[in-house]
Structure prediction request, 278 residues.
Amino acid sequence: MWLLFIYFATVSVVAGVLTVSLRNAVHCALALLTLLLHMAGLFVMLNAEFLAAVQIIVYAGAILILYLFVLMLMNLKTEEQHLHKKYPYLFFVGMGLLAELLILLMLSPYGGTMGTATPELILATGPSHAVGVTMFSDYLLLFEIVGIFLLGAVIGAIVLAKTPAKIENPEPANSSTP
Amino acid sequence: MIPLSAYVAVSAILFMTGLVGVLIRRNFIVVLMSVEIMLNAANINLVAFSHYLHSMAGQMSALFIIAVAAAEAAVGLAIIIVIFRGKMATNVDQINILKW
Prediction:
């Protein structure tokens, strides 16, 4: 169990660091793919098999392909300077925040009210069943809102990325009509 | 049994990696990818707490985060295409007309 966790966690972190540090944007996308797949492995270890499947299908299968499509469409050249000029300062800001976050996490007691969905109860019917029952009872309104939200996002993306129509000139400049 | 703090530590490291990526990268598609890393780190956190506190709420939130991430990617990439078509700019420091 620990071996699997260490493998998934290490590869996730290394792939995340590669995603923000590689020079070529397509390589960044492939590192992000590795990160997403190993994160799905962590989800399986946490008893969330349905979420792992959704992660692979939606994230790795749809969102990442969208990124790759746009990257290939724009045909970017590899930049000589792929980081900002003052990146060491920002890097140290990030490291300081990470140190603070980790110290706070180490000091945290991790207490909380226990819910009713114990792992045994979930494993009795399967995680997908548990997710489905919860989603269509307690979270039904949120589910519908997310549906409308996605529809709005699709319409917005189409309207934004559409090729602008040529404006018909009502009076051509070089027309020599009598 | 792996303690909850291990998952939370992985999530914190990934979140800060994504934050540093948003801050230091120039290419705006990679900036959006760093935002995806941050959203994924939040997902791990939610699922870990959901597992250890015996509640389904965390998994639900993670599912909705994935849906929101899909919408964000679609609209963000559409905006990037519009900017690229008008300005041929690929870096965030070239898009500064709103800056005074």
Notes: The radius of gyration of chain A is 24 Å. Residues 1-78 of chain A form a domain with the Four Helix Bundle (Hemerythrin (Met), subunit A) fold (CATH 1.20.120.1200). Chain A touches chain B through 83 residues (CB under 8 Å).
